[in-house]
Amino acid sequence: TRGGSALNSSWIQPLLCISLLSLLLLPLSLSCHSQSRRKELREDYKTVVETDINNANENIANLLQNTSCPALKHKLHNCRVSTDRDFVSSLHLLSCKMKKLSVSHTDKLVRSLLNSLGCHCPVEKPTREPTVRLTKRTATRRRRRNQQKTRRETKKLCKSKAILSAMTRCYQMLNSMQMAS
Predict the structure, then answer these.
(1) Domain map (residue ranges) of the chain
(2) pTM for the complete prediction?
(3) Is 42 exposed, middle or buried (0-12, 13-18, 19+ CB in 10 A)?
(4) Contact 43, 123 (CB under 8 A)
């Protein structure tokens, strides 16, 4: 600007203040871990979440009926129940991993868990659309593609099964703490 600094401009100062305020408040708005308490989570588990976990387990077990799941390459997050924040953080992480797998049989469970925790999963970056090549499609390619798709689906179901098991252990730990106190 002429004859002065850029901060003297009447529209920049409010914009700068709003930006700084939003940066200060952003961590508070994204933090869901302080909103839930153990007693409320236990009640939610007994009324809604336990049923959803059991249904999802049953559906996935039926789909994996004649398939064995290999051991996971990466160890799942261990549940910690030392504090409310640790417990909610553990369940939140597992819920978001489950959501990212996008297995239709776990959608209801993920929604009920996130509602119970009062949390949301971070928004994923949109994936790029694949480029389509105009090539001859042979039966062999189609068959190979179908086999790969089946393997991917089985892998997702196996990972979902492991996450469900970890979630169940978390809630069992929470409930055992209730019995002890």
Answers:
(1) 36-121+140-180
(2) 0.69
(3) middle
(4) no
